[in-house]
Write a structure and sequence with these properties.
It is built from ten helices and no strands. It has about 300 residues and is mainly α.
Length: about 300
């Protein structure tokens, strides 16, 4: 007769095997890495314009604005011919990338019989996207022009960290198994609204136009939680740090020390995006190899 200890061991083995079979993050890591690495192709240089300082028309005034301001930044990246193409590209990277990831997990579930519920993954992307595209303009409208959120961190940072902390607590409370359906729904709605506010407050500082990287990072962390994968969580944290660096720091300064000093938008954008893209591509290879060795 099988002992209770042996039964417990068999159950734990089956749980570990099920968790391993649910992990399929190598594909989304590879997909987003390639899409990010291809983004500089959209930053087609703008034809030179003749500056007329006597008329009061400055170079920045002659640059057309495209859709999705969160995906179009300032600095050397604005001297491009098709700003609309840039905004639409980053928007489609998020929409197509997240939908393709959900499709991939569904396809894998039909093949091996173990499914990962990607609804939280898609909802997190929607909350981040709404925060950056809708929340940032709304916050700027609510704050007087002479007291902008960007220049007053004493106003914006409490909004950012406060809403993020409360959102985490509310979402954790709402996802407990013993919650009633109506309480769960109300908690999820409130948590997502607070998360959207947090992303909006963060988007105030992302003036380089690479907000999409933070949406991908948020999705990876949610996916790591769904898979219970420490490895994917570590990759998500490293990628998130690289995404923040690309959004807050002029990485051109680092490449300047190496002698790579471009003067066109495409190589400048490549310098900003190279590290985040390489983190995802390397993470995809590591996840794939670890999964193969585990099997």
């Amino acid at each position: 007769m099988t002992s209770a200890e042996e039964l417990l061991t068999d159950v734990q083995t089956l749980r570990r095997r099920a968790r391993r079979d649910r992990r399929a993050s190598a594909f989304p890591l590879l997909l987003f890495g390639v899409l990010i690495l291809a983004a500089p192709l959209c930053y087609v240089p703008m034809e030179p314009v003749e500056l007329d300082f006597t008329s009061g028309v400055w170079y920045m005034d002659q640059i057309p604005e495209g859709p999705f301001p969160a995906f179009f930044g300032i600095g050397p990246f604005v001297a491009v011919k098709y700003p609309g193409l840039i905004g639409w590209y980053w928007f489609l990277v998020i929409v197509v990338g997240f939908v393709a990831t959900a499709w991939w997990y569904r396809r894998r579930a039909l093949r091996i019989g173990v499914e990962t519920d990607t609804r939280a993954y898609l909802v997190s992307a929607g909350a981040a996207l709404a925060g950056f595209l809708l929340g940032v303009p709304l916050l700027k409208e609510l704050v007087p022009a002479r007291n902008t959120l960007y220049s007053t961190p004493s106003t914006n940072l409490p909004i950012l960290f406060g809403s993020a902390a409360v959102a985490a607590v509310v979402l954790f409370w709402a996802t407990r198994r013993d919650r009633a359906d109506i309480l769960r729904a109300a908690g999820l709605l409130l948590g997502l609204l607070l998360a959207t506010v947090a992303f909006a407050a963060l988007g105030v500082y992302l003036i380089y136009g690479f907000s999409a990287l933070l949406i991908v990072a948020a999705g990876l962390l949610v996916l790591a939680w769904l898979e219970r994968s420490v490895l994917l969580g570590g990759i998500g944290v490293v990628f998130g740090a690289a995404a923040l660096l690309a959004n807050l720091y002029d990485i051109e300064n680092l490449f300047y020390l190496l002698g790579w000093i471009p003067d066109q938008p495409q190589p400048l954008v490549l310098q900003q995006l190279l590290l985040p893209a390489l983190v995802l591509l390397a993470g995809s290879a590591i996840v794939a190899l670890s999964g193969r060795s585990a099997r």
